[in-house]
Amino acid sequence: MIKPYRIQEAKISFECTLERIVTVSEGPDAGNLILGRIQLVHVRDDLLKNEREVDWLGLDVLGRLSGNRYCTVRSVIESESN
User: Fold this and answer.
1) Over the chain (82 residues), what is each successive 10-residue block's mean pLDDT?
2) Rg of the Cα trace of the chain?
3) Bridge-partner residues for 53, per DSSP?
4) Which of 9, 31, 34, 54 is buried deepest, with most CB atoms within 10 A?
5) How many angstroms separate the CA atoms of 73 and 61, rounded?
6) Is residue 35 part of a domain?
7) How many helices (H) and strands (E) does the chain have?
8) What is the full DSSP assignment across 40-75?
9) 80 in a domain, yes or no?
10) CA 73 to CA 31: how far, in whole Å?
């Protein structure tokens, strides 16, 4: 829809439009929180189950915690309701 450049090796990517930019703090430690609205999702075929569900463990996700700390996803918990 938007046709941005994408990284070929990415397992999943999103096409987003800018919703808003929120300035967080001021000074040397300031930053911006950028919020976007997802318009289209691209998922590698081998990560799809039933042509609609993403195999979350197959993504091999790496998350940022704080400082030089990161985390991985070792299990996925699914609830009956949101």
Assistant:
1) 82 93 92 94 90 84 90 85 72
2) 16
3) 49
4) 54
5) 6
6) yes
7) 0, 6
8) EEEE-GGGEETTTEE-GGGG--EEE-STT-EEE---
9) no
10) 27
